[in-house]
Amino acid sequence: MTTAPSTADLPARPLAPTVLARLAEVGQVLLPGIYAWAVTVVPAATERAHTVWPTVTAFLAFVLLVAGAFLARGRPRIGYALGIWGFLIACLATWLLTMPSLQVERLDPWRAGAGTIGWALYGLGWGTPWRIGRHPEDDPRAQLHPKLEPRNPPSLRTALSVTAGALGALACLLLAWRVAEPERALLLHGAALACAVALINVSASIGLAQGMKRVAFAPRQRITYAFPWIMAISALVVIAVAWLLGT
Questions:
Q1: Which one of 143, 189, 207, 235 has the fewest beta carbons within 10 angstroms of its own beta carbon?
Q2: Rounded-to-integer distance, Cα 55 and Cα 174, Å
Q3: Rounded to an integer, what is the distance from CA 229 to the centroid of its chain?
Q4: pLDDT exceeds 70 at position 22
Q5: Which one, of 155, 165, 160, 30, lies nearest residue 84 by Cα?
């Protein structure tokens, strides 16, 4: 006759790795949010010319972010609702209450760049949270499928096309910073961003098309496919000519 082992005989689970893993999981979504909040929300809320309401909404955004980060694992719906939607709504309310301090001539370029990086990290942190020592395939509910094989072997032309598109997109974004006038700079930054996205899209399409069998389309289909791009290029040319005439 065997007896069940008592709880005192069972090996104790190490607490430190569990606590560290939990802190790392929370910090992944909490630290980028605090950084973005401190760089873009706190300076606007602490202006002396404003009332107390921007400070209240900024503090509410911080509370919602912390609560959402700690509730995201146990109660993901509530955690994501507080940490994403509640935090964003509170930040937006703070900015709406401090609109005079957000004018173009009063913005600090370095702070704006740092805030952009912070919000990008915030989105990545909430988008795909990783956990130390865990793998998606270890989940018992995971549906494992055979390994996906590439349709075509990788080629040098694919890498060159994507690299050329990335360099062209970066060049468009850098050229927009050469404009000194705030009114024209805002327009050109939008046009540069549109050109950069278009270059990335086209280079990715060209890279994926390398090695595939080409099918000859009818002339009418070619014209239909090229018409939106021709109109977009024409609009960019008109904007560039108008800018040159204005200078």
A1: 143
A2: 36
A3: 26
A4: no
A5: 30
